[in-house]
Amino acid sequence: MHRADDPALLAALAEATAGALAEAEVRLPGDVEQAIRAAHGRERNPVAKGELGNILENIALAGKGRTLLCQDTGIPVIYLTIPPDIPYTRALEEAVARGVRLATERIPLRPNAVDPCTRKNTGDNTGPGIPPVHVQPGDRLTVTVLPKGAGSENVSRVGMLLPTRTAGVEQFVVETVALAGGRPCPPVILGVGIGSTFDGVAALAKEALLLPVDAMDPFEQRLCGAVNSLGIGPMGLGGDTTALAVKVKRAACHTASLPVAVNVQCWAARRATRIVEGWK
């Protein structure tokens, strides 16, 4: 059993967190970039096609110059996988927070974390409960970062539907995007959670954003088609492509409830994973 307060382990975790953020903030995952290219290729609306072209140019310039994909560098949501021989302690969370502070200084990142009532900015993207850290068992110690901007987060929704309204899930998803309009900088990726509890379904929806977008099952395809039929289009200017993909995660729920959550993600669907190495 390794010690969770091992200085070498904590330093390596902090560096892995900072490194994953440095990658995620300047370069989109290949599956997301390919989805945007595919949308550009099939888009029929000339204005929408032009906007998708601008997005692709943005991606290319950010990668070439190692500059930020978006000025809203988001709140870093963190997912750790921890093997059985490493105990999970507060020290690991503190190391992740140190990595976020390092990334904020080095990249640099816009400081986004504020007190919810006074709105005082901490200046380093950390604070009480920030960054949120989600833990899962795994074979290796890894850190995955999901920087989440406010424009898309602000239009995300949770609904507690009647259990007899299973057909209402699609309606809830489409209604969420219709209400959002152009505010989340479409084309969007939707993480949809179905089941669990009020808090659990929101976590499912966000975790769905970690899934690859290069394949959708029939239900996900149907949801994506329904959203695209809205015609909101890139940046809300109309077109065929409102959503690049819809990804769904499910869990069991109470017999008397049907929780549904939609976590909206803008086209800059940033995520990156690092294996924590070099500390043993």
Explain the overall architecture.
The chain is an alpha/beta fold. It has two domains: 7-25 and 68-148; 151-265. Helices cover 38% and strands 20% of the residues. The chain has helices spanning 7-24, 30-42, 46-65, 90-106, 150-153, 168-180, 198-208, 218-228, and strands at residues 75-82, 133-137, 142-148, 157-161, 188-196, 243-253, 258-265, 272-275. It has a four-stranded mixed sheet with strand order 2-1-3-8. 41% of the residues are buried.
Distance between termini? 12 Å
User: What structural class do you assign from the helix and strand content?
Assistant: alpha/beta
- Structural shape: globular
Secondary structure tally, helices: 8
* Helix percentage range: 25-40%
SSE series: HHHEHEEHEHEHHEEE
Task: Please list the strands of the largest sheet in the order they lie side by side.
Answer: 2-1-3-8
How much strand content do the residues show?
15-25%
Provide the gyration radius in Å: 19 Å
Number of strands: 8
Instruction: Round the mean pLDDT to the nearest integer and report it.
Output: 96
Low-pLDDT runs: none
